[in-house]
Design brief:
Elements lengths: L1 H5 L4 H5 L1 H32 L2 H26 L4 H24 L5 H23 L1 H5 L5 H30 L1 H20 L25 H4 L1 H17 L5 H9 L3 H20 L2 H4 L4 H21 L3 H29 L5 H29 L2 H22 L1 H5 L9 H13 L1
Helix pairs in contact: 3-4, 3-8, 3-9, 4-6, 4-17, 5-6, 5-9, 6-17, 8-9, 8-13, 8-16, 11-15, 11-16, 11-17, 11-18, 12-13, 13-16, 15-16, 15-18, 17-18
Amino acid sequence: MRWQVRFLDTRPLRSSQPFRDLWIGSSTSQLGGQIATVAVLAQVWDLTGSPVGTGAIGLATGLPMMLFGLLGGTLADSVDRRAVVRATAAGQLLAAAGLLAQALADNRSVLVLLALVATGSACGALGAPARRTFPVRLLPSDQVAAGLALTNISFQAAMLTGPALAGLIIARWGFPAAYAAQAMTVAVSVLAVIRLPAMKPDGVDAAGGRRRPERGGWGIVLRRPTLWGSMATDLSATLLAMPIALFPLVNEIRFDGDPGTLGLFLSAVAVGGITAGLLSGTVTRRRRGGLVQLTAAGVWGVALAGFGLAGPLWLALGCLAVAGAADTVSVVTRSALVQLETPDAYRGRVSSVEHVIGVAGPELGNFRGGLLASATSASFSLVAGGLSAVLAIAVVAATNAPLRAYRTPPAAAEPTARGVADAATAAG
């Protein structure tokens, strides 16, 4: 039965109907999100014809994510997390309907479009910390990493297929059809969340009333070496070695600016991530999650340094595929560790910290890479960034013995989470 360990671990889909519903809804909405991303990019370009206009999409998306992500963490530790996600998913559906309406009305105001994008982003960020706590409440601890791997592979698949599908839809039927597709996928996500059991944080009364969150929710990240070590590892990898902003420059210098090659760079990262997801059973059944994350993050840095030196296209794409695979392994193991190591009363706020790091780290990393490349070269920026990330990760590993030694707790160690979900499902 060794082959089962090597391939995708599907136990969470078989063992938990609530998780299966959540996964289907999330996978569908992720595909719709990728379609909408391309549609917004194309519509803003159509309205402005300016890179400043398309760059403003990043502000309209990123700033609400950071601001409302932290607020969502406190909210997720105060009330029923299912209720939070239900409300925010409904808000995302309204924002998607707004995008459809403005396209049907042939809106010519980029501010209206960006306001709707910001609204959807704010709703998603507000519900993200609560949503991140769902797998650990719906699955036994030995299946949490597998559940996160399934979620990650659906995201990678959406990244690979969504943009191409969006291009086909827009070319044939226009922007309204693309936004209609997004609205339908968000509606599926809302229905999936409605079917979930109640998931009140520890300390909320039986009636589900609001309560003041336990003190120390933010400080627990610093008090627990496994938590700060895992997040520092992720931040080191993304802040010091994020390569996407350098793709156009590398493409221009080495491959004559061929837009097809630029697309291959992004596809190679996604292909690596999907491949790692399909083989995720190799790592999700391993209990040394901290060591796995540290190793995967180190491989990410080495692979991107290799991309900075690679001459032939096949070697450059191979390095990016390895980086994408390493990123998937690192994300899955980090997410599982953070959820399992955080007491339930603090999971919302800790998840919001993880969410903000996941949003801000890559964006700042791309900015850092662009600045360094403008002062030196793309190759130097990639190689220096990749090796700096490896060095920073090595420092974390050397100074954080609890993270190196961390082991996923056995399933019996968290009977409450499973029991709560099962009991709520039966009652519902």
